[in-house]
Every structure is written in structure tokens, then in C-alpha cells.
Amino acid sequence: QVKRTSDYNLRAMSSEEEKVIITRNFRLLEELERGEKGIGDGTVSYGMDDADDILMQSWTGTIIGPHSTAYEGKIFQLKLFCGKDYPQSPPTVRFLTRINMSCVNPDNGVVEPSHFPMLSNWRREYTMEDLLMQLKKEMMSTHNRKLSQPLEGNEEERTDPKGLVVKCCVM
Fold first, then answer.
1. Distances (CA, A) of 120 to 84, 89, 157
2. Long-range contacts of 35-44, Cβ-Cβ distance < 8 Å, separation of 24 or more
3. Which residues of the chain have pLDDT under 70?
4. Which end of the chain, N or C, is more open, meaning fewer C-beta atoms within 10 Å of its C-beta?
């Protein structure tokens, strides 16, 4: 009888895990559809990094630097990684393009949750679109808008989560 109970619990857990994965994938499919349609004024975009990624974990984002800031005229490429717990847990976010911004680690481009309230206070309702729009807003904040930026055309090598070296440049 104990065995049946534990078997039932195992089946229930598997079923619950499947529900979580299905819910996560539906959510990500909705986000993908929205990202493909374009966002607002076109200064922020995102999409899947690898169409063959059935877990929909790896995403690419783009932010065009806002007017009247040190970021103006530059295109910033980002990598977003949605783990198994997304959307309950935030994605990890990393700038591939070199950027000087208070919430970004200058050595690896990672947006530090401890310096970016949206990540540290993540809510299930937030989306990658919300995240990118908030990063753009952060570029316009008084403490970031005039920060000197790395020179244009500087090439940077960074390692992506799969261990591949990615070369990118500020355009």
C-alpha cells in the first residue's frame, strides 16, 4: 500500500511537471509571436536565438539607444536565457555589445539583479518585452544617460552560455 501511494505521488509529480512545462511553453510561444510582430516604436525587439531550441531557452534582444543619451545612435545586442522556471523566475540577461550602465557588469555584460530592481523583484506577469523596455528606460535615467560609452567599432569577445565565443561590435 505504501508503494502504491508513492507511485501515485510520483505520477502526480510528473503530471505537475508536465503542466508547468506546457504552461511555460505556451507563455514563450505567446512572447515569440508578440516579438515577431514588433514592439511599439521599433526601438526594442526580441526573438528566439535558435529555431531548433525546443525548450525555447535562448533568446536574442536588441535595443536601439534612446535619443538625447550617451547611447543614442547605437544598437545594443542582448542575450536572454529563460530557464526551466521561467516565467516564475526571471531570465538571465547579458549585453553582447559593450555598454557602460550602472546595472551591467562591465566584465561580462550581465545585468546584475541586485542593481536592476525588475530582476530582483521579478513577477510572473513580466515578459521579455517588459524587461527590454525597462532596460531602455534605465538608459534614460539620470544616473545612466550621460555615462561615457565604449568607442564605436570596438570588437569584444564574450562567451555565451554554451561556451561559444561570440564576437560583437557596437554599430
1. 18, 10, 27
2. 35/128, 35/129, 39/129, 39/132, 39/133, 40/133, 43/136, 44/129, 44/132, 44/133, 44/136
3. 1-22, 39, 152-171
4. N
